[in-house]
Amino acid sequence: MRYRLLGRTGLRVSEIFLGAMTFAEPHESRRVLDTYADAGGNVVDTASAYGESESVLGGLLRGRRDRFVLATKYTLSRDASDPNGAGNHRKNLRLSLERSLRRLETDHVDLYWVHLWDRYTPLEETMRALDDAVRAGKVLYVGISDAPAWVVARANALAEWRDWTPFAGVQVPYNLLQRDIERELLPMADACGLSVAAWAPLARGVLSGRYSGPGPAAAGRVDPSGLGDRDHTAAAAVRAVADEVGATPAQVALAWTMARSAAVHPLVGVSSADQLRENLGAVDVELPEAALRRLEVAVSFDVGFPGDFIAECEPSPFVFGDADMSLVRRPGGSLDRSRYRP
After folding, report:
1. 196-222: b or e for each residue (b if 16 or more CB lie within 10 Å)?
2. Residue (of 107, 98, 61) closest to 78 by Cα position
């Protein structure tokens, strides 16, 4: 396992994050966590709304808590009958964090995620409350999950202006079948230096071949009868590339997300240590350029406006005149304007 820095911080985080949403039975959960740790993984992600996950994880971390980057989330309802039992406001943040700390058996979390954008709470309130938690030593770094790009950018601009703790990462769905973040969120993360935790990197198992391989479909989180041609086409393309490179479909699907941007960390949730061991093998899979292109064109995806429109305008003399616009692109895909040659 290799390591990268979390956003614009000095925190070292492993290439693949472990999702603890499925942690319920301590014995198998311990095997999963041990397998992840033995491979060099160090980021374990849970949430206040994931049932017994925090409590189970807290018990499993006894005696080795500081070896992990422990992440949890708040926003979702603690009490459906309480109008203040959910949301990103200060009261819910404080109560959710205190409950998470008790469950996790720790005095701080390393990474605290806003679980979902709350349109009713001002961003100023959320960012200030998060900064207070950081200054109190109960949180070290903060991030946000499932929010529009403009919300993340505005929140970090507020943090910069007011000397508050900015978001170091975003958590979003990303896989070959769901590439929406390439429109705004991924370019924003690249420009702002944010890490990207990609949830559902296997599209709930569709890209692992579980529902499209030879023989009857295996049991899982998806009803195979609800899958369409697009799903099966993507799964078949992943399987074909996997056969060529000597890997499993799951490993290829995960490697594809990491190949798209150095900022992307697949967030894998598994039901067994064997499944995790297979997924972790993705770090050793290198996909040739031809294979990457085949995967990307296997199913249709349009960036849409304004991305496609701007890309069409870039080479036009009508827009930039006769200047040589030989802009060199950085690995993440953004333009390296320092090397613009007029």
Report:
1. bbbbbbbbbbbbbbbbbeeeebeeeeb
2. 98
pLDDT at residue number 334: 46
Residues of the chain with pLDDT under 50: 328, 330-342
In angstroms, the first-to-last Cα distance of the chain is 42
**Set 3, 36, 50, 340: catalytic member:** 50
In the predicted model, what is the mean pLDDT of the chain? 92
Q: pTM of the prediction? A: 0.91
DSSP letters of 108-155? -EEEEEE-S--TTS-HHHHHHHHHHHHHTTSEEEEEEES--HHHHHHH
Q: Is 50 a catalytic residue?
A: yes
Domain 3-298 has CATH 3.20.20.100: yes
Q: Which residues does 20 contact at the CB level (< 8 Å), separation at least 6?
A: 29, 44, 45, 46, 50, 53, 56, 57, 269
**What is the full DSSP assignment across 1-46?**
--EEE-TTSS-EEESSEEE-TT--SHHHHHHHHHHHHHTT--EEE-
Residue spans of the domains in the chain: they are: 3-298, 307-339
